[in-house]
Each structure stands twice: as C-alpha cells, then as structure tokens.
Input
Amino acid sequence: MIFRKKLRYVLVEASADARMADPRNPEELKAGVRAFLGELQYFKANPQIAAVLSSNVFVMVVNRGYERSLALALAFVKGLGGRRMGFYTIKTSGTIRSIKATFGQVY
Amino acid sequence: MLSFDLVNFHDAGVDALAPRLGYKKIFKSGVDVEISARGVGDWAKRSKLITNGGQETDAKALKQNGVIGVLPQGMTVTRKVLDIAKDEEKPIIIPMSAVTNTQAGARIQELSKMRKLVRSVLMADAPFALVSLADGKELMMSSLQMLEMAGFLGIDMARAKTAMGRMGELI
Output
C-alpha cells in the first residue's frame, strides 16, 4: 500500500506586502500560527508555504482536516516583519492547480 | 446564502476587497449605518442606527424605528435588552474583531466574554448579526474565517450563515 499524503492548499492574501521572499517572514508567520494552535495541533497540521504568487498573496499547504484550524489561526495573526497586517483565507482546495487558477481569475 | 460585513473605517480599497473575501458587500460605519451612543431623541429619528449606549439606553433605543440593531457595550447584554431585541426583531451585533484585536494575554478574557455574550444570545433565541467591525484592513477577515470564528464561539454553521447575511437585510 502506498502511503500518499493528503493535503489541502489554502490561498492566503495579506493586507500589506508580506515579503515572503525574506526567509524570516514565513518562519514568523508559522510561529504565529503555532502560538494559536499549540504544539500538538501545529505538529499534526504541519503548515508550510507552498508558493508565493504575488507580493501579498501566497499559498499555504496543510494536512487534510486542519485547513479550517489554519484559517482560524491566521485570523489571529496580526503582524509580520514588525508591521501590522492581517491575513485572509480566500480559498481552500485539494490541488495547487485550482488555487493558481483562482488566483489568475480573481487577481 | 449571501454574506455581508460591517467595518469601522473608510478606505476606498474595501469595496474591491469584498468579493475576494466572500462578501456581497462590506458596509461602512458612518457611511451606510451609524453607531451611536445616543439612541433616543433626535438621533433616533434618523434611519439606520446601531445603538451602543449601555443597557438602559439600548433598551429604550431598540423601540425606535430608526434603530436597526444593538452593539453591546463591554460585550455584555441584559435579559431585558435581549427580550426587546427579540420582540422588535432587531439583531445583537457581535463584533469579531474585538477578539482578534487583542494581545495573547488578554485574548483569553475577551474570548470568554464573547462566548458568554454568544451563549446569552443563543439561549434567549434573539436575532444576532456577525460582523468584523474592523478598525483597519488588518483586522478584517474573510467569510471563511468568520464562519470558523463563529464555530469556535459555539454557533452552529446554519445560524452563523444566517447571522452573516443579516446586515444585508437591514441596510
């Protein structure tokens, strides 16, 4: 039996330039999510940045079943890189392709 | 079901943000509706007011035609206000940004107060509306996040969706 990871991709928009190219910012964002979820839920969810689509829009990937927890956690993260900003979860999907298609249509 | 939001700041970019966040429209306090602590008297003769004057003021203001809802001061609401809101069919406005706009230490207390408010409203079977009432773009949230917050506070999905569409019916 082949073990296949079941993932969910979440399209996230920041209210300001998130500067995800700076390696410190994704870590800071994940730390904010961890602060809300707690160590155990964070370990189970394992959120990562999958793709950066523009200066303030990126895709996060999380284990299936934890996309809603991630959305809730992102509602509580209000800053990044010393700047105040909010994070909105726009769409959730099982494939990154459909997320990128949504990005192309909406933005 | 269509969702609407109410924010407490003016920004030209908010209207463009609405469809991306999953809202039909985002209303602005001071433009589409007024939040006033003086619910009776001359203010009440104007339309589309949300009263925020404290328990006694709110109880009287809710009976005025121009008042469309009540924003509880200090996240507390008395049984009297709940009963009047239920009779007048005017919703209790629950501002979600009150919880997200706090530091980690105070967050637990704010969450506790919010949960108490939600429980009171649900037990009284009073109508309520879920809005962000954000003071800035960073305090807004998408409709997906608002639904998750509602679930987190103990509101079931069906009622949460109805509550998120309520502002559109009123304004």
